[in-house]
Amino acid sequence: MLSKLLNLTGILLMAAVILLALPLTIPKLFGFQIYGILTDSMEPEFPRGCVVYVKTAAPEEIQPGDVITFRLGSGTDVTKTHRVTEINTEKQQFITKGDANASSDVDPVPFSQLEGKVTGKLPWFGGFSRILHTGTGTAACIAVFILALGMWRAAEKIKLKESRK
Q1: DSSP string covering the chain, please?
Q2: Which residue of 6, 18, 44, 158 sits 20 to 30 Å from the alpha carbon of 37, by its own alpha carbon?
Q3: Residues whose CB is less than 8 angstroms from the CB of residue 54 and which lie 6 or more positions away in sequence, other chains included
């Protein structure tokens, strides 16, 4: 009985980690970048705490109404996700606005800062994604894997011991 309980607990721990990590890893194999929404500016469609899947797009593929992710400057990796309200092709800039904001963003977005177009979202995974990408989060995942393996090993030893009786 104890061996079955240990085995099942190990399986459930391993499955939980895998199921939580899959939506944050598999899309990258298909060319998507994953970003977390950190503010309320895109409520209600993209609430704080969700992650968005972003596919690389050329500026000419973007239309008003599309939601894009862009770098806040040429020398930074900090990004923002907002909706395109206008496109100034002459100046090669997007005018963007957060859905929950009253007015457009103060600074236009140069085409060169475009990361891509948002193609999907996963609510509430932003916090898990941030944790997973820290040293502590990675260590916790490794610890859960080791714990699950230890439970399986203990279950096998108990089963072997019981079969000898």
Answers
A1: -HHHHHHHHHHHHHHHHHHHHHHHHHHHHTTEEEEE--SSTTTTTS-TT-EEEEE---GGG--TT-EEEEESSTT---EEEEEEEEEETTTTEEEEE-TTSSS--SS-EEGGGEEEEEEEEETT-HHHHHHHTSHHHHHHHHHHHHHHHHHHHHHHHHHHHHHH-
A2: 18
A3: 32, 33, 34, 35, 69, 81, 115, 116, 117, 118, 119
pLDDT in tens, 98-113: 999 999 999 999 999 9
Phi/psi at 147 (5° precision): -60, -45
In terms of pTM, does the model score above 0.90? no
